[in-house]
Amino acid sequence: xxxxxxxxxxxxxxxxxxxxxxxxxxxxxxxxxxxxxxxxxxxxxxxxxxxxxxxxxxxxxxxxxxxxxxx
Length: 71
Fold this sequence. Notes:
By secondary structure, this protein is mainly alpha-helical. It has helices at 2-17, 27-36, 38-69. The chain has a domain at 21-69.
């Protein structure tokens, strides 16, 4: 149980350590964002990261619950 808690803590901390300036835009989105300005470009980038991360979090949660129930 302590090992699982340690892994969970490390994963949560890694989310906070990752730099916030991750570029998640394709070339077309980058050109569109450059035309919009800096603030809308950052919002577009965060929206892309949010939409990309959500399925991984859902699948990870389901996998964790499945693993926990089958132990």
